[in-house]
Amino acid sequence: MNANNEKAFYSNYGVGVDISAPGGGQDKKILQETIDPSSGQAKMAGFMGTSMASPHVAGVAALIRSTGVKDPEKIRKILEESAREVENDKLNYYGFGQLDAEAAIKLAKKGQFPLRLDHDLLMKLLMLAVAYVFTALFSKSIRFTALFHLGIVLGSCGFFLLKLVDIFDVPQWPLRLVSSPLGQWGNAIQGSVDINPIFASVLIPFCLMALLLGNRDAKWLAVGTSIGMAGFLTVTIFTSPDLWLLSSGLVSQIFLGVNALLCLALVNLSLKES
């Protein structure tokens, strides 16, 4: 299709066409990074053709696969059934219709249980479980208030179920932030993979303790956050210990381990003070 969602001049038609997708046209081409043959350097250039339309279909197929649909035939069927139908297409310019990414994802998720046990979800549940194991060490001194449990969640796993919320055409970083534990807020803000050692440390629990320890009720938020952070850091030691600005491997693991112990020591000290 061209920019007006019409058959492009270069497009084939007839029996061999299964689906149509954006491929650009004379007036509005598809922008792509490529190699300038004259200089050998990367440059941005506009292209058009079926070679520009195919990646759009492949991209939507990848999105469908990310929902849990793995079978190629099922992916193909979803692409065909979700395509936007074109009326009076007597010469089969568009095949099953125009590619529709949003409709394809909705169709792929239809009838699925939304909470798939992927690796990230399992890690978040493990962090939460480890945090409550640490809680047992101090159970005789802790008041299990709503603020305490909120702190446990914020420190260990965040409101990770919010990652399942799909809202098109809105900034995704607010959802990434609230669905991540405090130790991964640096990732959500920076959009990076490596964990930010400023966030993944005893620093946030220490600041909360300094601010809230004098308040009889609010201090349990700080206590819960510190225990939750210890759970997060402990699991991270063995799963994804790569830290931003620090070398990966043993140095990062030592950093995470020391800070996990400091979080627990901070809890112990705060409970003695109270």
TrEMBL record:
Gene Ontology MF terms: serine-type endopeptidase activity
Peptidase S8/S53 domain: residues covered: 3-97
InterPro entries xref list: DUF5942, Peptidase_S8/S53_dom, Peptidase_S8/S53_dom_sf, Peptidase_S8_Ser-AS, Peptidase_S8_subtilisin-like
This protein's UniProt keywords: Hydrolase, Membrane, Protease, Serine protease, Transmembrane, Transmembrane helix
GO biological process, any: proteolysis
Residues of the DUF5942 domain: 121-273
Residue ranges crossing the lipid bilayer per the database entry: 121-139, 146-165, 195-213, 220-238, 250-271
Keyword Membrane: yes
Record protein name field: Protease
